């Protein structure tokens, strides 16, 4: 076993990242085979002359991405990957938004655990206002006219660079299509693929915008069950659909992270059925312990993956800039669609130009780092409060990423009773039952607890109030 990377102490890569990359390369190349036992954290740290911290962090990242597994009282072992011809396309050197409510609720809550709210207290108002005013200068009057229907070229260049460095997405600016919202982009996809595909497979439970949008465009929606590590590949093969929608970096609503072995199986499915995958990466930047999980799209060259992202979570929904990355084979079809429909750009050109300048100056990356740290504190405070007040009367699903967790409640009360008791106590929490297309025979009592929008100092008290509302006196 090699595991002797050359440390670049003067570079930008921390030691745990170098070690993580070295081990991952060995696994993907087949030099570390399935079931190989890795050295213990302490033994490897001694071998490499490191402290145990970077070794532990590297192992945890590999564990989160599914390259290794942990066996109690035994150690870490290499996980199985799909057949060599499938994994041969993995880019082992690749670098490696809110989620949206069904209806607007304007009721004021004392403790608002909104599942998709942002925290705007740290929004870079001064920088954004300055750059917006520069965009709106009188000598740049062309900014008020129609822009490129595909999106401003300069912004697409910035997005392509950002995605490559921070999400591991392999693309050129020409593959990026910008729009004002997800519905518009999904409608374009439905038109692009409608001549050859009539069914779409979606995660069950999942984000209903996908199912409902494609249904409105005449597609048959096929719900696919979730397993512990994500969408069921066997059910995908059994279905007639050749288009699947997944959220592999942080599944909505259940929060699981799809390991690399299942990601490669999913890519293999798309190859086998000559189909496409829509990768919804709505909050991929916000993972709080370990590095963000790289995209599915970047795992194999020329994969049939349509990658979707936006700036609603990263900055603010009001910016109104979303985007998708098309596979190269769909680009010509997209240009034909533009010519046929005379489509104009839906996202504000002024916002696009402002965002371009914001990214060019490195302000977006600075803001993401700041918000990730800020949200991590809230995330951890929420988990601590749940453990302190609920104990074994509830369990947490989908921690360590995104803007919410699911709280599964062990109570004899009905979901409707729990919801009403929360409202009466002044606590906003939404049931997750609406995310099911095909509900299970017995619906679990699960509630969204969003932590991004609520002030940090209110989190513990809000959880305590919710506990008292549901279990007080029992």
Question: What would your notes on this structure say?
Answer:
There is one protein chain. This protein is an alpha/beta fold. The chain is built from 15 helices and 16 strands. The strands form 4 sheets. An 8-stranded mixed β-sheet has the order 4-11-10-9-8-5-6-7. A 4-stranded antiparallel β-sheet has the order 12-13-16-15, covered by helices on one side. A two-stranded antiparallel sheet has the order 1-2. Helix 6 packs across helix 12 (349-360).
Question: What about the largest sheet?
Answer: 8 strands, mixed
Number of distinct helices: 15
Distance between the termini: 56 Å
Overall SS class: alpha/beta
Radius of gyration: 23 Å
Beta-strand percentage? 5-15%
Helix content: 25-40%
In what order do the strands lie side by side in the largest sheet? Answer: 4-11-10-9-8-5-6-7
Low-confidence stretches: 83-103
Mean pLDDT, nearest integer? 89
- The count of strands amounts to 16
What's the shape? globular
């Amino acid at each position: 076993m090699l595991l002797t990377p050359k440390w670049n102490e003067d570079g930008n890569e921390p030691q745990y990242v170098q070690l993580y990359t070295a081990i991952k390369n060995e696994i993907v190349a087949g030099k570390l085979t399935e079931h190989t036992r890795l050295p213990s954290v302490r033994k490897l740290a001694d071998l490499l002359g490191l402290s145990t911290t970077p070794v532990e962090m590297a192992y945890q990242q590999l564990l989160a991405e599914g390259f290794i597994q942990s066996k109690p009282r035994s150690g870490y072992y290499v996980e199985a990957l799909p057949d060599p011809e499938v994994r041969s396309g993995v880019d082992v050197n690749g670098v490696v938004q809110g989620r949206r409510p069904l209806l607007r609720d304007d009721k004021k809550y004392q403790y608002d655990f909104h599942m998709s709210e942002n925290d705007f207290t740290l929004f870079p108002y001064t920088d954004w206002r300055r750059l917006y005013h520069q965009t709106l200068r009188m000598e740049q009057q062309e900014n008020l006219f129609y822009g490129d229907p595909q999106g401003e070229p300069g912004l697409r260049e910035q997005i392509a660079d950002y995605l490559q460095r921070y999400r591991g997405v392999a693309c050129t600016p020409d593959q990026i299509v910008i729009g004002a919202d997800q519905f518009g982009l999904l409608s374009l996809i439905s038109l692009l693929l409608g001549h050859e595909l009539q069914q779409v497979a979606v995660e069950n439970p999942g984000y209903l915008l996908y199912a409902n949008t494609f249904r409105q465009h005449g597609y048959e929606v096929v719900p696919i069950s979730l397993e512990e590590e994500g969408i069921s590949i066997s059910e995908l093969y059994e279905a007639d659909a050749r288009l699947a929608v997944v959220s592999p970096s942080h599944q909505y609503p259940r929060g699981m992270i799809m390991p690399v072995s299942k990601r490669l199986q999913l890519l293999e499915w798309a190859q086998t059925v000559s189909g496409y995958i829509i990768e919804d990466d709505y909050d991929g930047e916000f993972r709080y312990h370990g590095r963000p999980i790289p995209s599915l799209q970047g795992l194999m060259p020329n994969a049939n993956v349509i990658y979707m992202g936006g700036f609603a979570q990263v900055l603010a929904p009001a910016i109104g800039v979303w985007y998708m990355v098309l596979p190269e084979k769909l680009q010509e079809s997209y240009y034909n669609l533009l010519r046929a429909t005379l489509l104009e750009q839906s996202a504000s050109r002024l916002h696009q130009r402002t965002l371009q300048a914001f990214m060019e100056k490195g302000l977006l990356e600075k803001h993401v780092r700041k918000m990730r740290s800020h949200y991590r504190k809230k995330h951890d405070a929420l988990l601590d409060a749940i453990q302190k007040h609920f104990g074994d009367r509830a369990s947490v699903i989908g921690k360590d990423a995104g803007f919410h967790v699911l709280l599964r409640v062990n109570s004899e009360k009905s979901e409707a009773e729990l919801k009403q008791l929360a409202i009466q106590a002044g606590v906003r929490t939404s049931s997750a039952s609406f995310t099911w297309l095909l509900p299970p025979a017995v619906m679990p009592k699960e509630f969204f607890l969003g932590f991004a929008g609520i002030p940090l100092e209110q989190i513990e008290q809000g959880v305590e109030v919710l506990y008292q509302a549901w279990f007080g006196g029992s």
